[in-house]
Specification:
207 residues; alpha+beta
């Protein structure tokens, strides 16, 4: 379990991402909505496409405005336009949340399982943490982001295994005011089968 000092270190490390990541994801969603509306793809069946376009748009926004990330760099993209940022040896992978804003499990992909196990953090310390930032659009049409540090693997419907978990607000000042209380408990929900390796399948995108 993470110590309060480790949680504070991670909070301070990701603080520069507050505004840029919120802005990037919101712009990405708006780009996706415009594209789907233009091509008459507004039915719920096309929501996964919206998520892919949003991720690509967010990634491009961060690439263009990388100077605002205060040392965080956009990582190389995989075939699925993966969105990941890194600073020194710390990494944040951005994934769309599952229903109930849950963290997607690692699945069977070896590299992703290794990322979730966070072996480097166990060996070398909090500076080498592999983090996940899940995102969704809430009922007020605002981007919400949750940062976690996974520390194991789980299946769909199981409790997520994380030892750091906090909301990443849009404002750095708001983040600094948050109080963190470690909590070992989580909620379990039944989720539909997942067929995407890099994203949650049914997180809310609003509208």
């Amino acid at each position: 379990m993470a110590t309060p000092e480790e949680v504070e270190y991670i909070r301070d490390a990701v603080a520069p991402l507050c505004e840029p990541l919120h802005e990037a994801l919101y712009r990405g969603v708006e780009t996706g909505r415009s594209f789907l509306a233009e091509h008459d793809l507004t039915a719920a069946a096309y929501n996964p496409l919206l998520a892919h376009i949003a991720r690509a748009g967010a990634r491009r926004h961060l690439e263009v405005h990388e100077d605002l990330l205060e040392g965080w760099l956009v990582g190389p993209s995989a075939n699925n336009v993966q969105l990941r940022v890194a600073r020194r040896s710390m990494s944040v992978r951005v994934l769309r949340a599952l229903p109930f804003n849950a963290v997607p499990p690692p699945g069977s992909n070896y590299a992703r399982v290794r990322y979730y196990l966070n072996g480097r953090a166990s060996l070398f310390g909090v500076e080498d943490s592999d983090l996940i930032a899940t995102w969704w659009i809430d009922g007020a049409d605002e981007v919400q982001i949750r940062v976690v540090r996974p520390c194991g693997r789980w299946n769909y419907g199981d409790s997520s295994e994380v030892d750091v978990d906090f909301v990443l607000p849009q404002s750095i000042d708001t983040l600094a005011d948050l109080a963190f209380e470690p909590d070992d408990e989580d909620l379990s929900f039944d989720f539909p089968d997942e067929d995407e390796e890099d994203e949650g399948d049914a997180g809310s995108l609003g509208r």
